[in-house]
Amino acid sequence: MEQKINACNNLLELVGNTPLIKLNKIAANLEGNFYAKVEGFNPGHSSKDRIALYIIEEAERRGLLKKGSTIIETTSGNTGFSIAMISIIKGYDCILAVSSKSSKDKIDMLRSMGAKVYVCPAHVSADDPRSYYEVAKRLHEETEGSIYINQYFNALNSEAHYKSTGPEIWQQTNGHITHLVACSGTGGTISGTAKYLKEQNPNIRVIGVDAFGSVLKKYHETGEFDTKEIYPYRIEGLGKNLIPTATNFEVIDEFIKVTDEESAHTAREISRTEGLFVGYTSGAVMQAVRQLEEMGEFNEDSNVVVIFPDHGSRYMSKIYSDQWMSDQGFFDSKNVEEPQKIEFLK
Ligand code: PMP
């Protein structure tokens, strides 16, 4: 007789349905109530599990994937990890073209998950044959029966969030959400989530977080793609040097830019104050909230949902390394706390 065992059939059943967690200490001096959708609770530790699973299962429904087929993608790391994890469970090969800006941790992690990884130079234009977009396209053409996820230009990216992240937040807040603040990279998270939420209540304010060195904010405000806006920055996964079609600029009310330095310190502060070990862009989104508060965006009735896209373990050699922080000059300012000294006991 079959015994009743309360187990998941596999990891994929755990994608999505992440918790919404009230921010207590980090938001204590801000007007309003602040809640984080903590995407590090996904089995692949980021929001990218949602889009990877949705796009792969859509390709299966369309008959594009068979056992042993190859899945190809460009990725700053998180999408790659999710695709590699899903490929293991479903029996596909996974090839990833990543930017040289990605942390060594992320690249090692992808290789540990069985992916074939190509590291491409970060500071070349998107149409350069060496860019990770062009490398992925070429690999797709050369690999028979492969699919290219193409998250920046794939409408299924935001659709995944329209069908999962949006409804989850609406239910978790019982419809009382007033603001959504989220990072924009491909724009899939903010666009899909905002579209769903604005269909429920068009008055919800949606604010996208962009990086200095990225074109998104200026494009949103003026319609101009200004290459003069482009210069290197350190935050991974946020902002862009091109305009992704996965971004629906119409559902985003405003973009706000944050610095590498303040975002790094804010991520470390979230870990220390809330006990939530979050990634670099979670620091960016919280830094944006602080700037928005100074601009008078919130009042005591505001119920602000921020999206924390991934887990801090991906950044041990970056923002959670005092050496890295010091090498960037991030401890030079008078206003920042000195790193704790390590004591070696005899
Ligand atoms: N944060 C991190 C760490 C990411 O990897 C990404 C994805 N590039 C984002 C934020 C932004 O999410 P989206 O691509 O959905 O805009």
TrEMBL record:
<dbReference type="Pfam" id="PF00291">
    <property type="entry name" value="PALP"/>
</dbReference>
<keyword id="KW-0663">Pyridoxal phosphate</keyword>
<feature type="domain" description="Tryptophan synthase beta chain-like PALP">
    <location>
        <begin position="13"/>
        <end position="310"/>
    </location>
</feature>
<protein>
    <submittedName>
        <fullName>Cysteine synthase family protein</fullName>
    </submittedName>
</protein>
<dbReference type="InterPro" id="IPR036052">
    <property type="entry name" value="TrpB-like_PALP_sf"/>
</dbReference>
<dbReference type="InterPro" id="IPR050214">
    <property type="entry name" value="Cys_Synth/Cystath_Beta-Synth"/>
</dbReference>
<dbReference type="InterPro" id="IPR001926">
    <property type="entry name" value="TrpB-like_PALP"/>
</dbReference>
